[in-house]
Design goal:
The protein has 759 residues and is of the alpha+beta class. The strands form seven sheets. Strands 3-5-1-12-9-10-11 form a seven-stranded mixed β-sheet, sandwiched between helices. 55% of the residues are buried.
Length: 759
Amino acid sequence: MPMREEILKFGRSAPRSEDDPLLAGRGRYTDDLRPTGCAMAAFVRSPHGHAEIRSVDVAAALKMSGVLAVITAADIAKAGLGAIPPAVLLPGRNGKPMFGPPIPVLATGRVRYVGEPVALVVAQTLNQALDAADAVQVEYQELPLSAPIYAEAPDNVALDWEHGDAAAVDAAFQRAAHKVSVRLADTRVAPSALEPRAATALWDDKSQRYTLTASTQGVALVRKVLAEAVFKCPPETIRVLTHDVGGGFGMKTQPYAEYAALLYAAKRCGRPVHWCATRLESFLADTHGRDGVLDGELALGADGRFLALRARTRVGIGAYASTFAAIVATNNTKNCLSSVYRIPAIHAQVTMVLTNATPLGPYRGAGRPEAIYLVERLIEVAARATGIDRVELRRRNLIPPSAMPYLAPSGQTYDSGEFEAVLDKALLLADWNGFPARRKASEATGRLRGIGLCCFLEVAGGSPLNETADLRFEADGTAVLRTGAQAMGQGQMTTLPLILAKQLQVDVSRVRIVQGDSDEVPGGLPTVASRSTMMAGGAMLKAADEAIRKGKDFAGELLEAAAADIEYQAGRFSVAGTDRALDWKGLAQMKGKALDTVAAFSAPEMSFPNGCHVCEVEVDPETGVVSVVGYAAVDDVGNVVHETIVDGQIHGGVAQGLGQVLGEQVVYGEDGQLLTASFMDYPMPRADDLPMLKLGHHVAPCTTNPLGVKGAGESGVAGSIPAGVNAVLDALASRGVTHLDMPMTPLRVWQALNKGGKA
């Protein structure tokens, strides 16, 4: 596929157009946009992890001052509303179908996790709604957490799934000279977006339409699910609006139950209804991420070559199947198991387990970091078992550039990658060879020092691999692109206009992007899987090319010349060899909507961002405190459209990955209560927890999209989790500690050091 390398030259110079309004307090977040006269909502949530609902008494709440309505599951059922289903139900082993319980709008008959919405109170003010919510009397009959969550799944297994050639893997293990194994805990984490979820619901009786304003990662999916599954109405009956989004990380892709309940309430009350989650509600009810037990086995020949990999993962998906839970737990992990290495045979088996916890959803990386973490820990253990240097063992098994295109056992075909070059650049950037001297200096002060690396490849683009762009020209010649991609911090409102302006050969001020309005933008996937520049950018280029082709035809007609004689340059259509010309403004005024162009782009394959990250830590053995003292990362994200934005994405991903390594963990008690329900208990990484990051880039352009980009949004997480864990364990190895699960908090590190060996 030809690439437009000439448009990828913005470097660090082009300013981010998003920054000024957001930093100056002019952001338009959902909670800032409450309409005049709107009512306020509060949810009654379950205090139990598992219980039957015996009764819900709303009489006292309804009598309280300012209360407009108290809505229960009985009201939802009477209105005929449906539940929110998963987008995908995969077949399991032996053809057994997945059991994917949908999410009810309000808990029906039973609650299955602490924080599940049971009732909705609408009142004139927020305080009135909160007081009335406290007055709703719900009688529960507690159930043991050991009891089946659903009668349809007595073993609490939603899906037993596998992929790969088990016989080939078994045969490779039979002849292997070395076999190693690991078991890793992949902690449950909370996305913790800076902006909590919020929504305003409106019913217009005249037009018979709902409008939902909410912080989402894509309005089209939210509208589709709410219309088709919940309200059972034509999609055009519901309009979804999204303005500025203060972080999503995958969590805001979900069409949440609260949104459906608010829409119903708005129609019933005859006025707009607004709700904004508290931070406690965010911890309780936003989809969580990760939560798995990862078992892996690696077979190696006597020469250290990888022969086969077995992966067995158990993923706790929570009490219901969220929109993308099945994809996150299965294909996303499977697709990354080969990573950057030649592994001739791979077999993966995944068990998705229902638990009395908040539903699991995509969280930055969404199943891909799990695969990389498993493979990189196996390599570390294999290096120790075989006596082969950990860098050399990796190098010996890297897929060479000459093997491209490379068909991995996962079924993915890698189009490009220069993995050894990336490794060498990262080692140099991190001053790997100078580490022994730095370790000696740390030991002189009584501290332990470790260094860890991670080579990785992830899969970006999402499925299906298609995207639509809608390009129109206003009467003043401004090019307006409508796209289903949704900005939420990735810099889309900078990069997309720059790319389109370059392709149209106009100033970027003549380009405008429309997002976040389901009445305006094309359908498709939300902003997930690091896909936006690759997919929306590809569709945008096709639309621009088609618009220029149309423009030449129209210019030829209007200028009385053959289309073949029309030249296009700097936004002007001119007759070759003459001064007769038209610009986009002239064409738009004379041809109007005839210039409108809708173009679809389909990629033949995913893209494969890859990199090598090196983390260096110091450990205080007296307190167990881990300090990250160095971090170097070299990433191949294909062509780099805007280096500052790519670097920012890497920075954020590294911070989130190291946050999980060093402290972040959602913990439920034995009674199902959430024990980490505030930032007092759930430690987020802070700026002074990280050193200045050293970043480098290696460009091996992707060949499956016209921009040659690979996606950058999740690489930082994929590299930082294994690199961070490997660094800490390298530091602890001198004290005999060979294994420690995340999070590597001071207490857990201190306990491991004082116990010795495994912890």
